[in-house]
Specification:
With about 350 residues, the protein is an alpha/beta fold. It has two domains: about 5-65 and about 165-345, QueA-like; about 70-145, Thrombin, subunit H (Beta Barrel), CATH 2.40.10.240. It has seven helices and 17 strands. It has helices at about 135-145, 160-165, 190-200, 240-250, 260-270, 305-315, 320-330; strands spanning about 30-35, 40-45, 55-60, 65, 70-75, 80-90, 95-100, 105-110, 115-120, 125-130, 175-180, 205-210, 230-235, 255, 275-280, 295-300, 340-345. Strands 2-1-17-16-14-3-12-13-15 form a nine-stranded mixed beta sheet, covered by helices on one side. Strands 5-6-7-10-9-8 form a six-stranded antiparallel barrel. A two-stranded parallel ribbon has the order 4-11. Helix 6 (about 305-315) packs across helix 7 (about 320-330). The longest helix is centred in the last third of the chain and has 13 residues, at about 260-270.
């Protein structure tokens, strides 16, 4: 079936868009969607332990969000410039979005001893920018002066200190810094909940997908097949791949935490499940897609007409997902990054 963009629209009252996370994190509501029975259950996220069982493989994305929005001034004129780090190209160069009047060759002062030079207009809305620091020196500067790029639907005044804590999973790895947006399904986990799951025999595996600006990019084509996904870097280490292959062979359920984990796993599956996996993936999953690895998914509620809504509709079935979203709106679930969660099993 050829789906149109309008097939993935729904009415969402603005007051249901969460502006703050609940505390504790696992106190969020959980809508449990059963693919086989078509039943919907209303639970708390802390009750996830009732739906996962010994031998289930829970796959989390350990990418860490960094404060990718920088504010500086042009060295020659003092004019204000906003720099949004989008994609790392090399040790000292990034693809960036730039705000302000920019020319190739412009030097941007970001802080004392930290500056960048605009090298190229990529003609796609981004610029190639070269920085004078690399590695840990670069990221220590970013951590000090950068601002967290919260999603545009969070309209309240930003609290950088509080949001830097809230807008990060508890298992984000300092060795996997690279996301400009959080893999938000993982925001609901607490150390207590992780321990309870492990104690009951749930296996937790890590993959990495660095979330890029594409997560906020709207689909603009009515024919969804004309949409081009932004590529994001994904990797799975060799030991994890061996365990995933064994779990698949044994018929264990593989449940992705978030659409980022799901896209990483399915990209690996599409590549033939190689023993080594690291690539820029632009996988686009929409109804009709046959999942190769993922059997279940923990996810938040997604924007109307988004590729993420298309992905969950592919896994659960479009009709069941329409019913789930209508129910969630009716019962006033909280939506988007700081909102409630859904478990599709």
């Amino acid at each position: 079936m050829n789906y149109k963009l309008s097939d993935f629209d729904y009415n969402l009252p603005l007051e249901l868009i969460a502006q703050q996370p609940v505390k504790p994190r696992d106190a969020a509501r959980l809508l449990v969607v059963n693919k086989k029975t078509k039943e919907l259950r209303h639970r708390k996220f802390s009750e996830l332990t009732n739906y996962l069982q010994k031998g289930d493989v829970l796959v989390i994305n350990d990418s860490k969000v960094f404060p990718a929005r920088l504010f500086g001034h042009k060295k020659n004129t003092g004019g204000a410039v906003e720099v949004f780090l989008h994609k790392k190209i090399s040790d000292d160069s990034w693809e960036c979005l730039l705000g302000g009047r920019i020319n190739i060759g412009t030097t941007i002062n970001l802080s004392p001893n930290f500056e960048a030079v605009v090298c190229r207009n990529n003609q796609d809305g981004t610029w190639l920018v070269k920085f004078n620091k690399t590695g840990s020196n670069f990221f220590s500067q970013i951590a000090r002066i950068g601002h967290l790029p919260l999603p545009p639907y969070i309209k309240r005044a930003k609290d950088q200190k509080e949001d830097k804590r809230n807008y990060q999973t508890i298992y984000a790895s300092s060795n996997k810094i690279g996301s400009v947006a959080a893999p938000t399904a993982g925001l609901h986990f607490t150390p207590r909940l992780i321990k309870k799951l492990q104690d009951q025999g749930v296996i937790i595996e890590h993959v990495t997908l660095h979330v890029g600006l594409g997560t906020f990019s709207p689909v603009k084509t009515e024919n969804i097949l004309d949409h081009k996904m932004h590529a994001e870097y994904a990797e799975i280490d060799k030991s994890t791949i061996l365990r995933l292959k064994k779990a698949k062979k044994n018929g264990q359920r593989i449940i992705a935490v978030g659409t980022t984990s799901a896209r990483t796993l399915e990209s690996w599956g599409q590549a033939g499940e190689p023993e080594e996996f690291s690539k820029w993936t632009d996988i686009f999953i929409y109804p009709g897609y046959q999942f190769k690895v993922v059997s279940g998914l923990i996810t938040n509620f997604h924007l109307p007409k988004s590729t993420l809504l298309m992905l969950v509709s592919a896994l659960a079935g479009k009709k069941l997902m329409e019913e789930a979203y209508l129910t969630a709106v009716t019962l006033k679930y909280r939506f988007f990054s700081y909102g409630d969660a859904m478990l599709i099993i």
